[in-house]
Design a protein that fits this description.
alpha+beta, Chitinase A, domain 3, three-stranded antiparallel sheet, 15 helices, globular
C-alpha cells in the first residue's frame, strides 16, 4: 500500500514537471531536434525586437503605413523585419542544441548576471507575485523570464566558442582585410539642403536639442537657385573639375575634417540611410552619384579604396566596427544552414504579426 502511494506521488510529480515544461499549454512555434520555442517566449522576443526597431530608427512609427512601406530589397518593412527577427529567435533554439553538443557551460559571471537580474526585479516588484503580475503583460512569468535570459546567454556562449579566440571560425587579419576590400567604399560628398539652414551671429550652424540643424523653408526663388547650383556642380564635376575644389565652392556642409573622405560599409544603412548605401554600391570607382533625401541632395564621388594597412587614424576610427561585421557575416553563414532544419508552425506565427502586437513596454525586461 505504501509502495502504491509512493508510486502515485512519483507519477503525479512527473506529470507536473511535464506540464510545466510545455510552458503552461502554449503551442510550439519553432522546433529543432526535439527542442522548441513556445508562444510565450516567441511573443516576448518579437515584442522586444519591435520595441528596439521603433526606438532605433528615426523614421519608424507603429502605424500601418510604416510597416507596409517598402524595404530596400523590395519586400515590405514588416516582411523584412519579421524574417530577420524570426531568424534570430530560431538561433536561440539552435544554440540550445549546440550548447549541449559542444558540452559548453555558462561562466560563473553569466550565471551570476542572470540570477542578479531576476533578483533585482523581484525586489523592485515586491516579490514573485508582483513580478509575475507585470510579466503577464509580455506573456511571461518569473520562471520563463529566467529561461529567456538563459537562452540568450547560451547563444552568446556558443557564438564565443565558435567565433572567438581559438574557435573553429576565429576571425583572422585576412578575414578583416578581405571584408574591407569587398564591403567598404570610400566616398566624398557635397550637400545641398532642401531648406535654409539657420546660422548664429558668428556664422555657425544652429542646432536643436537633438543635434539636428535648425531650418526653414526656401522661397521659390531660392528653390530655383538651388537647382541651378546642383546642375552647375554636376556639370563641373563631369567636365573633370577637382572634387575638393567643387566641394569648397558649393557644399552647404563642411566635411574638411575628413580630408580622405568617408568609409561606408554596406552594413551601415542605419548611419548613412538606404539610398546613399545603395547608390554608393551601384557606382563605379571615380563615378558620380546624385542622391535625393527629404532634407538634402547629395552629390557623391566614389573613390579608390586604399589598402587597410595604409589607413590613418581618422580612417581607422570609421571602421571600428569591422571585426563585429566580419563575425556577423561568419555567424550568418554558419547559422543560416542550420535554420533550414528549424520547423515552424505557420498557423501559430499568423497569430503574432509584427505590425499588430504591442511593443514590449518594459526596458528592464
Amino acid at each position: 500500500m505504501n509502495n502504491k502511494i509512493r508510486i502515485s506521488i512519483i507519477v503525479a510529480a512527473v506529470v507536473i514537471v511535464l506540464l510545466a515544461s510545455c510552458s503552461s499549454g502554449y503551442g510550439k512555434v519553432m522546433t529543432y531536434e526535439g527542442h522548441y520555442i513556445t508562444e510565450d517566449k516567441y511573443y516576448y522576443w518579437l515584442s522586444t525586437y519591435k520595441r528596439n526597431i521603433l526606438y532605433s530608427y528615426s523614421d519608424a512609427y507603429d502605424i500601418p503605413s510604416f510597416w507596409q512601406s517598402g524595404a530596400p530589397d523590395g519586400r515590405t518593412v514588416e516582411e523584412f523585419f519579421t524574417e530577420t527577427i524570426n531568424n534570430r529567435i530560431s538561433d536561440y533554439l539552435i544554440a540550445e542544441v549546440l550548447f549541449r553538443q559542444m558540452k559548453l557551460s555558462l561562466s560563473d559571471s553569466a550565471r551570476t548576471e542572470i540570477e542578479s537580474n531576476i533578483s533585482e526585479k523581484l525586489d523592485y516588484y515586491g516579490g514573485r507575485a508582483g513580478l509575475n503580475e507585470e510579466l503577464k503583460n509580455i506573456m511571461l512569468n518569473v520562471r520563463t523570464l529566467k529561461e529567456v535570459y538563459t537562452a540568450e546567454a547560451r547563444l552568446e556562449a556558443v557564438q564565443k566558442a565558435l567565433f572567438g579566440d581559438g574557435g573553429e571560425y576565429e576571425i583572422t587579419e585576412n578575414d578583416v582585410r578581405e571584408y574591407f576590400c569587398s564591403k567598404y567604399s570610400r566616398i566624398k560628398y557635397i550637400v545641398f539642403y532642401t531648406e535654409r539652414v539657420l546660422k548664429d551671429s558668428d556664422g555657425g550652424v544652429l542646432y536643436d536639442d537633438e543635434g539636428i540643424p535648425v531650418t526653414e523653408e526656401l522661397n521659390e526663388t531660392e528653390k530655383n537657385e538651388r537647382l541651378k547650383k546642383i546642375d552647375n556642380c554636376l556639370a563641373e564635376l563631369r567636365a573633370g573639375a577637382d572634387f575638393d575644389e567643387v566641394r569648397k565652392k558649393y557644399s552647404e556642409y563642411d566635411t574638411s575634417a575628413y580630408p580622405n573622405g568617408f568609409l561606408v560599409s554596406v552594413n551601415e544603412i542605419q548611419t548613412w540611410g538606404p539610398q546613399i548605401v545603395t547608390a554608393v554600391s551601384g557606382t563605379e570607382v571615380n563615378g558620380i552619384a546624385r542622391v535625393e533625401e527629404d532634407f538634402a541632395t547629395y552629390i557623391i564621388v566614389r573613390l579608390p579604396l586604399d589598402d587597410i594597412a595604409s589607413l590613418d587614424e581618422t580612417d581607422m576610427s570609421q571602421i571600428s566596427s569591422i571585426a563585429t561585421y566580419v563575425m556577423n557575416e561568419k555567424y550568418e553563414d554558419f547559422f543560416s544552414t542550420l535554420r533550414e532544419n528549424v520547423q515552424t508552425d505557420a498557423e501559430l506565427l499568423k497569430k503574432y504579426k509584427l505590425s499588430e502586437i504591442k511593443p514590449n513596454p518594459y526596458y528592464a525586461f
